[in-house]
Structure formats: C-alpha cells, structure tokens
Amino acid sequence: MSIKQKSHQRQSLISSFKHAFEGIAVGVLNERNMKIHLCAMCLVILFGIEFKISIIEWCICVILCGMVIGAELVNCAVEAIVDMVMPDIHPNAKVAKDTAAGAVLVCAISALIVGGIIFVPKIFSILLK
Ligand SMILES: Nc1ncnc2c1ncn2[C@@H]1O[C@H](COP(=O)(O)OP(=O)(O)OP(=O)(O)O)[C@@H](O)[C@H]1O
To answer: Which CDD domains match (predicted)?
Structure first.
C-alpha cells in the first residue's frame, strides 16, 4: 500500500470517528430522552463510586449504559429516516417509530432491573445500619 493510500485511509478513519461523534452530539442535543439516559448514567457513576461496586459490577453498568444510549441513538436515526422518507401519516412509519422506541424501552427496563439488583441491596444495607 502506498504512503498516499495509507494517509487517505488514516484520514477516512479520523473522519468516520468525527462523524460518529457528531451523531452522538446531535442525539444528545436534540433528544430529550437521551438527556434522561445521560442523567441516569451520571447517577449510576455516582452510586458506583459511593458504594465501591466491584469491577464486574462496573463492567455490567458500562455495558447497560452503552446498550441504552446506543439504542436511543439508533431510535434517533430511525426517526430521522422516517421523517425524511415519510413526512405524511403512514401505518408503516408508525410501526417503524414505535418499534424503535419500544427497543429503547426494552433496553432501559432491563438496565433498570439489573441496576436495581446491583444497587438496591447496597442502599438497604446502608439504610438498615
Ligand atoms: N409519519 C407518521 N405516520 C404515522 N404515525 C407517525 C408518523 N410520525 C410519527 N407518528 C406517530 O407519532 C408518534 C410520535 O412521533 P413524533 O415524531 O412526534 O415523536 P418521536 O420523535 O417519535 O418521539 P420522541 O422524540 O419523543 O422519542 C410516533 O411514535 C408514531 O406513533
């Protein structure tokens, strides 16, 4: 591979990261639900530090936060595509938007349950001291 090709490949890798970060910024700035997920993530970090959770528990929290925020970004993309290709009311547009929103809800409920399993016993053990 020539130096020019290598440099072009590096440039396109950098620009694809740049576009991905732009996508995250758009999601954070435009989606109310994304702000809620980020607040929940901050709470998880604060609780994790306060309760000195284990490495495994940190890994689980990181996976769950990533799963919810990733799902919300995909939902944001689906909404944008639907609004672009189907500005009028259409049953399939409703199915696309509602199932994408449902996917976020499933992820968020799973994260809430697992978060509860990790943190609720720790909160109770402090309250009952
Ligand atoms: N083109 C459409 N055809 C049929 N139903 C639609 C269409 N666009 C939206 N809807 C329905 O209206 C609901 C709300 O859509 P809207 O675009 O106002 O909010 P949203 O961006 O999907 O929600 P949020 O941003 O709060 O996650 C959708 O979940 C869907 O049920």
So the answer is: UDPK_IM_like
Number of structural domains, the chain?
2
Q: What domain range includes position 23?
A: 1-30
78 CB near ligand 1 (under 6 Å): no
Q: At 106, list the tokens.
A: 């499933």
Substitution site in 73, 97, 98, 104 for ligand 1 pocket (most atoms within 8 Å of beta carbon): 97
- Name which residue sits closest to atom 5 of ligand 1, judged by CA: 94
Distance CA 43, CA 41 (A): 5
One domain, residues 53 and 110: yes
Q: Is the ipTM of this complex over 0.95?
A: no
Q: Compute, in angstroms, the gap from residue 97 CA to the centroid of ligand 1.
A: 6
Quick check: CB of 84 below 6 Å from ligand 1?
A: no
Per-residue pLDDT, 10: 73
Q: Are residues 82 and 112 in the same domain?
A: yes
User: H/E element holding 80?
Assistant: helix 55-85
Rg of the chain taking only CA atoms, in angstroms: 19
Residue-wise pLDDT tens digits, 34-77: 999 999 999 999 999 999 999 999 999 999 999 999 999 999 99
